[in-house]
Amino acid sequence: MAGLTLRDLADIGDRLARWQSLAYHSDGRTSQTISCRLCTSRRSIGTETMGPDTTRRYYEGSSDAYFLQTCERDLSSYWAMFEAHLKPGSAIIDLGCGSGRDLKRFAKGGHRPVGIDYSLPLLGLAARFSGQATVLGNIRLVPFRAEAFDAAWAMASLLHLPRSAIGRALRQIAACLKPGAPLFAGLKLGIGEETDSLGRFTTFYAADEWSDILAESNFSVYDLQIDIERRRLADGGFQEIPWIASLAIVRSGSMRRSHLPA
Ligand SMILES: C[S@@+](CC[C@H](N)C(=O)[O-])C[C@H]1O[C@@H](n2cnc3c(N)ncnc32)[C@H](O)[C@@H]1O
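Above are the sequence and the S-adenosylmethionine SMILES. Below is the predicted complex in structure-token form.
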């Protein structure tokens, strides 16, 4: 298997509850259970956070179409922003890995990416497309041990969390990163929260607001850009979507798991 081994995943996944433990391997094997040393003594991710929601249902039900729409998207400028901060052979967590496009990119660059996503069908596609390890889990409550990763990538995934959950999720992400590790996040610029006609829930952020949230969650903002994506519509027209792209660094003395609220 390319990337991390199952043993590495077991080591990383100290909070992975058994019922949701799952890893896809590039040779087609699927492991249903990762034996984790600490998961029995910790609170598992329960039905509240893994339960049905319309966003998840969309990514499960439309996985093939979503994969085809996004697996070849060129994110060169965002990859460059992130990769400038990576050490050779970095262990990278791709939060909401979708098609596996970015797992493939980072592995090609000599890194060791692991994808986490709550859509089981997309995880399978991502594992096959990238040849990298993927883990079923919820980015609201990342199931990894403290300082497991050298870097985190979250393109268009944290935007699906409600505003009320983002601070806690970011503090958990900070805790599973080494001090000084970079986090790239791509979010939609705007105001409020909405559920679109496909059932996808999105939270929009103002640039200052997003900077403040990162700073309150133990990250130092290194770079923040606003970009306009021109997305082609079925009728031949275009939709303009403003994005925030941020690169933030975990501050040293990051709150460890033991300091996080249960
Ligand atoms: C807009 S897609 C982006 C996918 C990929 N990062 C990309 O840039 O193409 C959002 C992804 O995040 C996943 N996702 C959304 N909310 C999640 C959650 N709470 N836990 C785990 N995955 C989540 C979805 O299943 C989907 O794959």
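The chain has nine helices and eleven strands.
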